[in-house]
Specification:
With 432 residues, the chain is mostly helical. Helices cover 74% and strands 0% of the residues. The longest helix is centred in the middle third of the chain and has 31 residues, at 226-256.
Length: 432
Protein backbone atom coordinates (compact mmCIF):
# COMPACT_ATOMS: atom_id res chain seq x y z
CA UNK A 1 0.00 0.00 0.00
CA UNK A 2 2.91 2.29 0.70
CA UNK A 3 3.97 1.84 -2.86
CA UNK A 4 0.61 3.11 -4.04
CA UNK A 5 0.50 6.16 -1.85
CA UNK A 6 4.16 7.05 -1.93
CA UNK A 7 4.01 7.69 1.81
CA UNK A 8 7.48 7.20 3.27
CA UNK A 9 8.04 5.70 6.70
CA UNK A 10 7.89 8.32 9.41
CA UNK A 11 10.72 8.95 11.83
CA UNK A 12 10.02 9.32 15.52
CA UNK A 13 10.74 13.02 15.34
CA UNK A 14 8.06 13.62 12.74
CA UNK A 15 5.41 11.24 13.98
CA UNK A 16 1.90 12.22 12.90
CA UNK A 17 0.42 10.16 15.76
CA UNK A 18 -0.10 13.05 18.26
CA UNK A 19 -2.05 15.07 15.70
CA UNK A 20 -4.04 12.02 14.68
CA UNK A 21 -4.89 11.08 18.28
CA UNK A 22 -5.92 14.65 19.15
CA UNK A 23 -8.28 14.70 16.19
CA UNK A 24 -9.62 11.23 16.99
CA UNK A 25 -10.28 12.05 20.65
CA UNK A 26 -12.11 15.28 19.75
CA UNK A 27 -14.25 13.59 17.09
CA UNK A 28 -15.07 10.49 19.11
CA UNK A 29 -15.79 12.44 22.28
CA UNK A 30 -18.34 14.43 20.31
CA UNK A 31 -19.88 11.25 18.94
CA UNK A 32 -20.19 9.67 22.40
CA UNK A 33 -21.34 12.84 24.14
CA UNK A 34 -23.92 13.75 21.50
CA UNK A 35 -26.05 10.76 22.50
CA UNK A 36 -26.44 12.14 26.00
CA UNK A 37 -26.69 15.79 24.97
CA UNK A 38 -29.44 15.15 22.41
CA UNK A 39 -31.68 13.46 24.98
CA UNK A 40 -31.04 16.25 27.49
CA UNK A 41 -31.70 18.91 24.86
CA UNK A 42 -34.98 17.40 23.68
CA UNK A 43 -36.11 17.12 27.29
CA UNK A 44 -35.07 20.63 28.34
CA UNK A 45 -36.22 22.50 25.26
CA UNK A 46 -39.06 20.42 23.81
CA UNK A 47 -40.15 18.54 26.93
CA UNK A 48 -39.94 15.30 24.97
CA UNK A 49 -37.52 12.54 26.00
CA UNK A 50 -39.10 10.50 23.20
CA UNK A 51 -37.78 13.01 20.66
CA UNK A 52 -34.35 12.67 22.26
CA UNK A 53 -34.48 8.92 21.85
CA UNK A 54 -35.56 9.29 18.24
CA UNK A 55 -32.68 11.70 17.57
CA UNK A 56 -30.17 9.27 19.06
CA UNK A 57 -31.62 6.45 16.96
CA UNK A 58 -31.40 8.62 13.85
CA UNK A 59 -27.78 9.36 14.67
CA UNK A 60 -26.86 5.73 15.44
CA UNK A 61 -28.67 3.64 12.83
CA UNK A 62 -26.58 4.92 9.88
CA UNK A 63 -23.43 3.77 11.70
CA UNK A 64 -23.96 0.33 10.18
CA UNK A 65 -26.26 1.17 7.26
CA UNK A 66 -23.84 3.68 5.72
CA UNK A 67 -20.62 1.89 6.70
CA UNK A 68 -20.11 -0.02 3.40
CA UNK A 69 -20.78 3.09 1.30
CA UNK A 70 -18.49 5.46 3.18
CA UNK A 71 -15.89 2.68 3.37
CA UNK A 72 -15.87 2.29 -0.41
CA UNK A 73 -15.61 6.05 -0.85
CA UNK A 74 -12.73 6.27 1.62
CA UNK A 75 -10.90 3.43 -0.13
CA UNK A 76 -11.28 4.96 -3.58
CA UNK A 77 -11.06 8.74 -3.04
CA UNK A 78 -7.81 10.28 -4.18
CA UNK A 79 -7.38 13.08 -1.65
CA UNK A 80 -8.03 11.25 1.61
CA UNK A 81 -6.87 14.11 3.82
CA UNK A 82 -9.50 16.40 2.31
CA UNK A 83 -12.16 13.67 2.39
CA UNK A 84 -11.69 12.61 6.02
CA UNK A 85 -11.08 16.11 7.34
CA UNK A 86 -14.16 17.51 5.63
CA UNK A 87 -16.33 14.60 6.78
CA UNK A 88 -15.35 14.98 10.44
CA UNK A 89 -15.72 18.78 10.30
CA UNK A 90 -19.18 18.45 8.72
CA UNK A 91 -20.23 16.02 11.44
CA UNK A 92 -19.28 18.60 14.03
CA UNK A 93 -21.11 21.34 12.13
CA UNK A 94 -24.25 19.18 12.07
CA UNK A 95 -24.11 18.82 15.87
CA UNK A 96 -23.76 22.58 16.26
CA UNK A 97 -26.75 23.08 13.97
CA UNK A 98 -28.79 20.58 15.99
CA UNK A 99 -27.92 22.52 19.14
CA UNK A 100 -29.84 25.48 17.72
CA UNK A 101 -32.58 23.66 15.80
CA UNK A 102 -33.89 20.99 18.19
CA UNK A 103 -37.15 22.23 19.66
CA UNK A 104 -37.26 25.32 17.43
CA UNK A 105 -38.06 23.76 14.03
CA UNK A 106 -40.13 20.82 12.90
CA UNK A 107 -38.95 17.51 14.33
CA UNK A 108 -38.68 16.02 10.84
CA UNK A 109 -35.95 18.52 9.99
CA UNK A 110 -33.86 17.72 13.05
CA UNK A 111 -34.31 13.97 12.59
CA UNK A 112 -33.17 14.26 8.96
CA UNK A 113 -30.14 16.29 10.00
CA UNK A 114 -29.24 13.76 12.70
CA UNK A 115 -29.53 10.92 10.18
CA UNK A 116 -27.31 12.82 7.73
CA UNK A 117 -24.70 13.27 10.45
CA UNK A 118 -24.99 9.58 11.28
CA UNK A 119 -24.07 8.69 7.70
CA UNK A 120 -20.70 10.38 8.28
CA UNK A 121 -20.18 8.85 11.73
CA UNK A 122 -18.44 5.62 10.55
CA UNK A 123 -15.54 7.79 9.41
CA UNK A 124 -15.05 8.99 13.00
CA UNK A 125 -14.50 5.45 14.23
CA UNK A 126 -13.30 2.78 11.81
CA UNK A 127 -12.63 5.32 9.06
CA UNK A 128 -10.05 7.19 11.12
CA UNK A 129 -8.44 3.97 12.36
CA UNK A 130 -7.99 2.87 8.76
CA UNK A 131 -5.67 5.85 8.19
CA UNK A 132 -3.02 4.60 10.60
CA UNK A 133 -1.54 2.19 8.07
CA UNK A 134 -1.02 5.13 5.72
CA UNK A 135 0.59 7.32 8.38
CA UNK A 136 3.01 4.94 10.11
CA UNK A 137 5.46 2.24 9.17
CA UNK A 138 4.44 -1.33 10.01
CA UNK A 139 6.86 -1.65 12.95
CA UNK A 140 4.97 1.07 14.82
CA UNK A 141 1.42 0.01 14.06
CA UNK A 142 0.79 -2.34 17.01
CA UNK A 143 1.44 0.38 19.58
CA UNK A 144 -0.40 2.89 17.40
CA UNK A 145 -3.53 0.71 17.45
CA UNK A 146 -3.24 0.47 21.23
CA UNK A 147 -3.03 4.25 21.42
CA UNK A 148 -6.04 4.47 19.12
CA UNK A 149 -7.94 2.13 21.41
CA UNK A 150 -7.12 4.53 24.24
CA UNK A 151 -8.77 7.32 22.24
CA UNK A 152 -11.98 5.27 22.13
CA UNK A 153 -11.76 4.66 25.88
CA UNK A 154 -11.18 8.35 26.62
CA UNK A 155 -14.09 9.32 24.39
CA UNK A 156 -16.34 6.79 26.12
CA UNK A 157 -15.50 8.30 29.49
CA UNK A 158 -15.24 11.99 28.62
CA UNK A 159 -18.07 12.32 26.08
CA UNK A 160 -21.01 11.53 28.38
CA UNK A 161 -19.31 13.31 31.29
CA UNK A 162 -18.79 16.53 29.31
CA UNK A 163 -22.36 16.39 27.99
CA UNK A 164 -23.83 15.84 31.44
CA UNK A 165 -21.68 18.47 33.17
CA UNK A 166 -22.13 21.21 30.55
CA UNK A 167 -25.77 20.28 30.03
CA UNK A 168 -26.47 20.77 33.71
CA UNK A 169 -24.39 23.94 34.14
CA UNK A 170 -25.03 25.79 30.89
CA UNK A 171 -27.82 23.90 29.15
CA UNK A 172 -27.83 20.95 26.78
CA UNK A 173 -27.76 23.24 23.73
CA UNK A 174 -24.44 24.69 24.87
CA UNK A 175 -23.10 21.21 25.60
CA UNK A 176 -24.00 19.94 22.14
CA UNK A 177 -22.53 23.04 20.50
CA UNK A 178 -19.24 22.62 22.39
CA UNK A 179 -19.03 18.96 21.42
CA UNK A 180 -19.77 19.82 17.79
CA UNK A 181 -17.14 22.56 17.78
CA UNK A 182 -14.63 20.05 19.13
CA UNK A 183 -15.39 17.62 16.31
CA UNK A 184 -15.03 20.41 13.75
CA UNK A 185 -11.65 21.31 15.22
CA UNK A 186 -10.66 17.66 14.99
CA UNK A 187 -11.62 17.60 11.33
CA UNK A 188 -9.54 20.68 10.61
CA UNK A 189 -6.56 19.06 12.34
CA UNK A 190 -6.76 16.16 9.89
CA UNK A 191 -5.89 18.58 7.09
CA UNK A 192 -2.39 18.85 8.57
CA UNK A 193 -1.67 15.11 8.29
CA UNK A 194 0.83 14.14 5.63
CA UNK A 195 -1.42 11.87 3.58
CA UNK A 196 -0.26 12.04 0.00
CA UNK A 197 -2.91 11.78 -2.72
CA UNK A 198 -3.25 8.46 -4.45
CA UNK A 199 -1.62 8.37 -7.90
CA UNK A 200 -4.06 9.24 -10.67
CA UNK A 201 -3.25 6.09 -12.61
CA UNK A 202 -4.10 3.89 -9.65
CA UNK A 203 -7.30 5.85 -9.12
CA UNK A 204 -8.34 5.35 -12.73
CA UNK A 205 -7.69 1.63 -12.39
CA UNK A 206 -9.82 1.45 -9.26
CA UNK A 207 -12.60 3.36 -10.97
CA UNK A 208 -12.48 0.99 -13.90
CA UNK A 209 -13.14 -1.94 -11.61
CA UNK A 210 -15.84 -0.28 -9.53
CA UNK A 211 -19.20 -2.03 -9.57
CA UNK A 212 -22.21 -1.88 -7.28
CA UNK A 213 -21.00 -5.20 -5.92
CA UNK A 214 -17.99 -3.36 -4.49
CA UNK A 215 -20.31 -2.12 -1.74
CA UNK A 216 -20.38 -5.63 -0.28
CA UNK A 217 -16.76 -6.60 -0.86
CA UNK A 218 -16.00 -5.90 2.77
CA UNK A 219 -18.88 -8.15 3.84
CA UNK A 220 -17.55 -10.90 1.60
CA UNK A 221 -14.15 -10.62 3.23
CA UNK A 222 -15.48 -10.90 6.78
CA UNK A 223 -17.31 -14.05 5.67
CA UNK A 224 -14.56 -15.69 3.62
CA UNK A 225 -11.35 -14.56 5.34
CA UNK A 226 -10.83 -16.74 8.48
CA UNK A 227 -8.99 -14.24 10.73
CA UNK A 228 -11.27 -11.38 9.75
CA UNK A 229 -14.48 -13.33 10.18
CA UNK A 230 -13.24 -14.66 13.53
CA UNK A 231 -12.47 -11.30 15.11
CA UNK A 232 -15.42 -9.51 13.46
CA UNK A 233 -18.22 -11.86 14.43
CA UNK A 234 -16.64 -12.91 17.72
CA UNK A 235 -16.30 -9.32 18.89
CA UNK A 236 -19.80 -8.58 17.58
CA UNK A 237 -21.44 -11.33 19.64
CA UNK A 238 -19.48 -10.14 22.68
CA UNK A 239 -21.05 -6.70 22.25
CA UNK A 240 -24.46 -8.23 22.91
CA UNK A 241 -23.32 -8.67 26.50
CA UNK A 242 -21.43 -5.39 26.74
CA UNK A 243 -24.47 -3.52 25.40
CA UNK A 244 -26.58 -5.02 28.18
CA UNK A 245 -24.24 -3.82 30.95
CA UNK A 246 -25.76 -0.32 31.37
CA UNK A 247 -29.17 -1.88 32.03
CA UNK A 248 -27.65 -4.43 34.40
CA UNK A 249 -25.79 -1.64 36.21
CA UNK A 250 -29.04 0.14 36.99
CA UNK A 251 -30.56 -3.06 38.33
CA UNK A 252 -27.48 -3.79 40.44
CA UNK A 253 -27.50 -0.25 41.86
CA UNK A 254 -31.07 -0.82 43.05
CA UNK A 255 -30.16 -4.17 44.62
CA UNK A 256 -27.14 -2.70 46.39
CA UNK A 257 -29.07 0.43 47.41
CA UNK A 258 -26.18 2.45 45.95
CA UNK A 259 -27.38 5.06 43.49
CA UNK A 260 -23.81 5.91 42.45
CA UNK A 261 -23.41 2.41 41.00
CA UNK A 262 -25.89 3.09 38.18
CA UNK A 263 -23.22 5.05 36.37
CA UNK A 264 -20.25 4.11 38.54
CA UNK A 265 -20.10 0.50 37.40
CA UNK A 266 -19.86 1.50 33.75
CA UNK A 267 -17.29 4.16 34.62
CA UNK A 268 -15.23 1.44 36.33
CA UNK A 269 -15.57 -0.73 33.22
CA UNK A 270 -14.41 2.14 30.96
CA UNK A 271 -11.54 3.02 33.30
CA UNK A 272 -10.42 -0.61 33.30
CA UNK A 273 -10.52 -0.66 29.51
CA UNK A 274 -8.38 2.48 29.42
CA UNK A 275 -5.83 0.89 31.75
CA UNK A 276 -5.82 -2.29 29.67
CA UNK A 277 -5.22 -0.37 26.45
CA UNK A 278 -2.35 1.58 28.02
CA UNK A 279 -0.84 -1.63 29.38
CA UNK A 280 -1.03 -3.31 25.98
CA UNK A 281 0.47 -0.27 24.30
CA UNK A 282 3.43 -0.52 26.69
CA UNK A 283 3.86 -4.28 26.26
CA UNK A 284 1.94 -5.62 23.22
CA UNK A 285 1.97 -9.34 24.02
CA UNK A 286 1.06 -11.50 21.03
CA UNK A 287 1.43 -8.66 18.53
CA UNK A 288 2.56 -11.07 15.80
CA UNK A 289 -0.76 -12.96 16.01
CA UNK A 290 -3.32 -10.38 17.15
CA UNK A 291 -6.28 -12.62 16.39
CA UNK A 292 -5.14 -14.92 19.21
CA UNK A 293 -5.21 -12.01 21.65
CA UNK A 294 -8.86 -11.51 20.68
CA UNK A 295 -9.51 -15.21 21.32
CA UNK A 296 -8.29 -15.17 24.92
CA UNK A 297 -9.55 -11.67 25.61
CA UNK A 298 -13.19 -12.62 25.03
CA UNK A 299 -13.57 -15.31 27.73
CA UNK A 300 -11.20 -13.38 30.02
CA UNK A 301 -13.71 -10.52 29.93
CA UNK A 302 -16.55 -12.86 30.83
CA UNK A 303 -14.94 -14.40 33.94
CA UNK A 304 -15.03 -11.27 36.17
CA UNK A 305 -18.54 -10.46 34.94
CA UNK A 306 -19.71 -13.95 35.91
CA UNK A 307 -18.46 -13.31 39.46
CA UNK A 308 -20.46 -10.09 39.93
CA UNK A 309 -23.67 -11.77 41.24
CA UNK A 310 -21.64 -13.03 44.22
CA UNK A 311 -19.84 -9.74 44.88
CA UNK A 312 -22.22 -8.78 47.67
CA UNK A 313 -21.33 -5.09 47.60
CA UNK A 314 -21.31 -2.31 45.02
CA UNK A 315 -17.59 -1.59 45.55
CA UNK A 316 -16.68 -5.23 44.95
CA UNK A 317 -18.90 -5.25 41.85
CA UNK A 318 -17.14 -2.12 40.58
CA UNK A 319 -13.76 -3.84 41.02
CA UNK A 320 -14.97 -6.81 38.97
CA UNK A 321 -16.33 -4.48 36.29
CA UNK A 322 -12.92 -2.80 36.17
CA UNK A 323 -11.21 -6.20 35.80
CA UNK A 324 -13.51 -7.10 32.92
CA UNK A 325 -12.85 -3.74 31.29
CA UNK A 326 -9.10 -4.26 31.67
CA UNK A 327 -9.37 -7.42 29.54
CA UNK A 328 -11.20 -5.54 26.79
CA UNK A 329 -8.27 -3.11 26.39
CA UNK A 330 -5.84 -5.60 24.78
CA UNK A 331 -8.78 -7.27 23.04
CA UNK A 332 -9.82 -4.07 21.26
CA UNK A 333 -6.25 -3.10 20.38
CA UNK A 334 -5.68 -6.57 18.90
CA UNK A 335 -9.00 -6.37 17.05
CA UNK A 336 -7.86 -3.20 15.29
CA UNK A 337 -4.47 -4.73 14.51
CA UNK A 338 -6.15 -7.88 13.11
CA UNK A 339 -8.32 -5.86 10.76
CA UNK A 340 -5.32 -3.98 9.42
CA UNK A 341 -3.12 -7.07 9.16
CA UNK A 342 -5.56 -9.30 7.30
CA UNK A 343 -7.74 -6.85 5.35
CA UNK A 344 -6.97 -6.55 1.63
CA UNK A 345 -5.71 -3.05 0.86
CA UNK A 346 -8.52 -2.11 -1.61
CA UNK A 347 -11.22 -2.65 1.04
CA UNK A 348 -9.32 -1.90 4.24
CA UNK A 349 -11.31 1.17 5.26
CA UNK A 350 -14.57 -0.51 4.32
CA UNK A 351 -13.76 -3.38 6.68
CA UNK A 352 -12.87 -0.95 9.48
CA UNK A 353 -16.11 1.01 9.07
CA UNK A 354 -18.19 -2.13 8.65
CA UNK A 355 -16.65 -3.72 11.76
CA UNK A 356 -17.31 -0.61 13.83
CA UNK A 357 -20.89 -0.44 12.58
CA UNK A 358 -21.53 -4.10 13.38
CA UNK A 359 -20.23 -3.66 16.93
CA UNK A 360 -22.55 -0.69 17.45
CA UNK A 361 -25.48 -2.69 16.12
CA UNK A 362 -24.81 -5.71 18.34
CA UNK A 363 -24.39 -3.44 21.37
CA UNK A 364 -27.69 -1.69 20.64
CA UNK A 365 -29.39 -5.08 20.27
CA UNK A 366 -27.95 -6.21 23.60
CA UNK A 367 -29.25 -3.10 25.32
CA UNK A 368 -32.69 -3.62 23.79
CA UNK A 369 -32.89 -7.26 24.82
CA UNK A 370 -31.72 -6.42 28.34
CA UNK A 371 -34.38 -3.75 28.60
CA UNK A 372 -37.11 -6.17 27.55
CA UNK A 373 -35.86 -8.84 29.99
CA UNK A 374 -35.14 -6.46 32.86
CA UNK A 375 -38.00 -7.99 34.83
CA UNK A 376 -35.88 -11.11 35.31
CA UNK A 377 -33.58 -9.18 37.63
CA UNK A 378 -29.88 -8.37 37.66
CA UNK A 379 -28.43 -11.84 38.28
CA UNK A 380 -29.79 -13.65 35.17
CA UNK A 381 -28.91 -10.69 32.95
CA UNK A 382 -25.42 -10.41 34.44
CA UNK A 383 -24.78 -14.10 33.86
CA UNK A 384 -26.16 -13.75 30.35
CA UNK A 385 -23.79 -10.86 29.62
CA UNK A 386 -20.88 -12.96 30.88
CA UNK A 387 -22.01 -15.96 28.84
CA UNK A 388 -22.00 -13.81 25.70
CA UNK A 389 -18.26 -13.26 26.16
CA UNK A 390 -17.52 -16.97 26.50
CA UNK A 391 -19.78 -17.91 23.59
CA UNK A 392 -18.13 -15.19 21.52
CA UNK A 393 -14.72 -16.72 22.25
CA UNK A 394 -15.94 -20.16 21.19
CA UNK A 395 -17.47 -18.72 18.02
CA UNK A 396 -14.27 -16.83 17.22
CA UNK A 397 -12.22 -20.01 17.65
CA UNK A 398 -14.53 -22.02 15.40
CA UNK A 399 -14.50 -19.35 12.71
CA UNK A 400 -10.73 -18.98 12.92
CA UNK A 401 -9.96 -22.68 12.60
CA UNK A 402 -12.50 -23.23 9.81
CA UNK A 403 -11.54 -23.40 6.18
CA UNK A 404 -11.74 -20.48 3.83
CA UNK A 405 -14.84 -20.48 1.63
CA UNK A 406 -15.08 -18.96 -1.79
CA UNK A 407 -15.89 -19.52 -5.43
CA UNK A 408 -12.79 -21.56 -5.95
CA UNK A 409 -13.77 -23.85 -3.08
CA UNK A 410 -10.17 -24.05 -1.99
CA UNK A 411 -9.53 -23.94 1.71
CA UNK A 412 -6.58 -22.40 3.40
CA UNK A 413 -6.62 -24.91 6.21
CA UNK A 414 -6.22 -23.54 9.67
CA UNK A 415 -6.37 -19.81 9.79
CA UNK A 416 -3.54 -19.88 12.26
CA UNK A 417 -1.21 -20.36 9.31
CA UNK A 418 0.69 -17.68 7.56
CA UNK A 419 -1.36 -14.87 6.10
CA UNK A 420 0.45 -15.55 2.87
CA UNK A 421 -1.66 -18.67 2.48
CA UNK A 422 -4.61 -16.52 1.51
CA UNK A 423 -4.61 -14.53 -1.71
CA UNK A 424 -6.83 -11.94 -0.09
CA UNK A 425 -4.22 -10.96 2.46
CA UNK A 426 -1.37 -8.63 1.68
CA UNK A 427 2.00 -10.28 1.07
CA UNK A 428 3.65 -8.08 3.67
CA UNK A 429 1.48 -8.15 6.79
CA UNK A 430 1.51 -5.01 8.90
CA UNK A 431 1.15 -4.65 12.59
CA UNK A 432 3.80 -7.26 13.36
Amino acid sequence: MKGMTGTPPRTRSSSPLPVYLTSAVLARTADEGARVALVMLATQRAGSPALGGALVAALMIPHVAAAPVVGVLADSVRRRRLFHGSAVALYGAALVALAFLVGTVDDVVTLALAAAAGCVAPLLTGGLTGLLAELLCKERLTRAFSADAVSYNLAGICGPAVAAALGTAAGAGAALAVLGAGATAGGLLLFSLRLRPRPRAARRTERGRFRPADLVRGVVEVVRNPPLRSVTWGSGVAQLGVGALPVVSVLLAAEYHASWAAGGLMTAFAAGALAGSLSYAYRPVGRHRPERVVLWGLPATGIPLAMVPWAGHAVAAAALFAMAGFCTGPLFSALLASRERYAPAPVRTQIFTLGAGLKSTFAAAGAGVAGVLSGLGAVPLMLGAAACQVLAGVLALVLLTGRRTGRDGAGTGRAGGSPRSSPSVRDTPRGS
